[in-house]
Sequence to fold (147 residues):
Amino acid sequence: MENTTLTIRITSSLRALGICWFVSGVALGLYIWDARGSFLFFFWSLPFFVVGWTLVGVPIIAMGNQILRIPKALLGVAGATAGAMVMLLPTLVLWAISLGTQHFKLDWAYLKGWPLFGAGIGGTGVILYSWLLSRAIYRKMPKLNID
Fold:
């Protein structure tokens, strides 16, 4: 297996991120049965996807081809955990800012909402990145003789 360039890894990562972002917005619109929900999701979710890509995507890009040796189930669990943590990040920041004066109740009903949605996106995104990277490795690139 040849080593991929940084450009290919970043491109594969951004493609996986874009696909997950678009499909999640469409899925949310179909779930709530309102196109306005999709458009709202496309604008509202950008900071979460940027934070998720920064916390998860950049280290995975730095791993290089090592990501292809990790089993897909383990990748899915790690991505799902990261996605849920990204969705819980605003609650944790508010709790830290309030210095314990605000009490946040993280019951099961709350965890089945947005954190579970983020877990699905995170797990799918990491597995999709692995698949896109493996496809990019075996794609034949034309060799141009420019002298």
Summary: The mean pLDDT is 77.
